[in-house]
Amino acid sequence: MNRVLLGFVLAFLWLPKLESQSHIYLIDDLSAQRIVDSVTQVMADSNLVGIAVALVYDRQLVYTNSFGWEDENVSSFTAETKVRWASVSKTITGLIAAKMWEDGALDPYALVSDIVPESDVGNIRVNDLFYHQSGIEHYGGTCEDSGYMGAFNPDSTVSLVDSCSICFTPPGEVQLYSSFGSNLLGVVLDKVGLSSYGMGYYDFYLNNIRTPYGLLSLEQDSTNTDIFMSKGYSGPGSENVPEDVGWKLPSGGFMSNIVDMGRYMEIVLNYELLSQEYYDSLWTLRPIGGNPTFACDTTDSGINESFNPGFGVQWVVSDDVSINNPNFIANHSGFNQTNSRTMLHLLPNKGLGVGILCNTTSQQAGNAVRKLRNILVGILDCPGNREFISLLGMGQSTVYEASTQIDA
Questions:
Q1: Is the dihedral of CA 137, 199, 315, 106 positive or negative?
Q2: 59, 133, 281, 324: most buried, per Cβ within 10 A?
């Protein structure tokens, strides 16, 4: 077996949990080199400026690394570099919703108008927002896509959502992926949070996820001034002009470094925050059917099988295997037009996770992130060739190690 040098590993084992400036390296050299070679090749093939990856194995964050540039030809992409999560942020909104649901504070069957009376969304219920079945339009329609300046504001968000068309009635009949629907869900959670916990959406996140789990870099981005924030590129030599995304916090406004994305995956894969029952609820599909009446041109709206995978509560989930199947997947990808392509991909029943933050925004970069996701899952998902070895002999720490044959 190829074993990582003991002294090298121990340098990382004693890092305080809250530290995020150093990469995690609890993996054997052979597997690590295969990851480096794969990322380097994908970067070269796809003209990526900067990228970082995080791997969870056996429900433990075992590896993070970064490649390329945070600020092209000026500063390298590091463990501290922050990237916008874009739509991966929706998974946080899903967790908050499931937590309030489990606590009995949030009724999924309640009318949105009963919780947010100032909204004008008819008979849409909370669980219609959960599963992207409300009919509220996505980008590119009548919605004011530019949003508003500054941090997430529930009142401004309600006005913004009211500018959107309702593309089908009744709600619950089909799926229509909608970031505006996710933002309205954020308003619902803000209202419920204030009435039941004395804290709104973001403070609830801070008090229940960020602070107790030490995810110090995982926060809202509404200023474009964070010193660790990566610049965004459409390709090498082509820097994007940043945009304000604070207004869409529940659907796409979080950011973090790669280590905290990895720790976030670790929290979810260890079923922290929620009970197993409510993680199952978080990732369970809601059936659709019926005969909706369409009020929008649905040709390019995403109401089709190829665009819409299965949805749990703000998570993309497998629609071809059961939630107990070893190959069941819970994930989400993200795309911010000026900053990032991102991926968070979990196999909960196998305890595996892959996270990717990329600061290149081209379609080619999006394809590269998906390709790299598949490669990294293939490296991790080889149970016959993997084991954990206790370095200290007392169970205090482990290192992920592969046999000499590592091909998946």
A1: negative
A2: 133
